[in-house]
Amino acid sequence: MVSSAAAEARWSGGSHPLIGGVQTMIATLDEMTTALAAGSDPSWLSAAEQGYYLASLQQITDRVTTMKQAALAALDAAHQAGDPDGPAASTGARSTADWLAHRTCANPRRLAAEAKLGARTATRIYLTAAMLDGLVSPEHARVIIECLDALPTDLLARDDMSAEELVEAVELQLIEYSREFTPAEVARLAKHVLEVVDPERAEQIEAERLARAEREAWRRTKLTTRGIGEGFIRVTADIPALHASILDTVLDTLTHPTVSPTSPASQTTPDSNNLESEASESAAPDDGQYLSGAQRRGQAFCTLLENLDTTTLPQRHGTAVAVTVVVDEDRLRREVDQHGLATTTTGVEVSLEQARRLMCGAGVWPAVMGGASVVLDAGRTRRFFDGRLRAALEIAHPTCQATGCTIPAAWCDGHHRTPWAAGGTTTVADGALLCPHHHRRVHDTRYDTHWTPTGEATFHRRQ
Fold it and tell me: Is 23 helix (H, G, I), strand (E, B) or coil?
């Protein structure tokens, strides 16, 4: 703290040290800017000077950011307490962060987050001092605050340490970590920091913290959908880490299928190069452009939804929950090169080629309408390749029946070689197993499909 006498001596010139400091920094930055504009290049410096220059700029940036965050928090606290003299009150702004965003054309959300972090660090004297000294960056501070806030509120005192002293020990340990590790690394170390400062109770405290986090994650779980046009729906989900890992595992398996040891497909050993080649083919659209991992996972998610076993889901109105595709019989029986539309019971329009493909699986029910809106077929289970019939197909065809494809049968869709709409039957002789990629292709009107005497499918792009 500065004594009142020293403060009076320093401020005798009429300038507060905070204002004077800012003015000095601006003047120094102006000099540096002039040097850069005149052609001065940091690469001209020696290696040691270059390192000092960059490291110092980073430290200065962190220290100035800390001061800004502290100022935002302090001024906003005064504003919320009814101070009529602050910049926010003088302009009618809701907060100091909003006022500064308007004044500087900055991002209001980012400034609000900085004000919040400044308020959270204000009560941590060791952390605040380390930040002002440039020893802890704002990113490190955010990680440290989250760790401290996650500590149980009912920490029991030890014989040699009170609960408050234990929290201070954790704070100091994390500050020490910040001098050696990145924010992400400190976040990982923070999960085990109690093992360092209080190893006797670390496991119990961590278990309690994890249980609270799991309950909170389940409470905050949500999923929203929003139409964004051009046939797209944006799905946004916040789900617990456990369920996200399950979804990751399923999607990774669908994008990189492997042979299951209990699957009939395990009777053969697919060549790994062919399997990777097939995965690459699935990842490349018809225009030859590269398909990113995110796109592949998105398509795998769609495949997962199409193949959900609706018989295990809760029933609605006495029937299994399922989306129904409604299509006129005349439209369905058209030649494949003719186009038309079908509609789902959820109000989504799909092409006839999409409808024909969906007819092959049990995840989506078809409803074929004759004259006067008479339902000719509503997805009778005898139309699907399941049970013993499915097992017979997998025994006869251990892999996808597209030429050169080695995707295991367990990952394939059942398909009518002669379309059901054209009189096809649900039999082993008329059935085929195709991976999701080739199943889409066989229903793609841009391709002709030919079946070899051995039951393999080949595809030829129409001219």
Answer: helix
SS3 463: coil
Q: Which domain holds residue 277?
A: 223-296
pTM for this prediction: 0.47
pLDDT in tens, 267-276: 333 343 333 3
* Contact yes or no for 148/178 (Cβ under 8 A): no
pLDDT band at 14 (very low <50, low <70, confident <90, very high): low
Q: Please, what's the largest Cα pairwise distance for the chain?
A: 102
In the chain, how many domains are there? 5
Residues 242 and 275 in one domain: yes
Two tokens, residue 294: 């995110």
The residues, any chain, with a CB within 8 Å of residue 119's CB and separated by 6 or more, are 73, 76, 77
The DSSP result for 25-69, as a single string, is HHHHHHHHHHHHHTT--GGGS-HHHHHHHHHHHHHHHHHHHHHHH
CA distance 16 to 18: 5
> CA–CA separation, 40 vs 34, rounded Å?
9
Mean model confidence pLDDT for the chain: 75
* pLDDT > 70? residue 151: yes
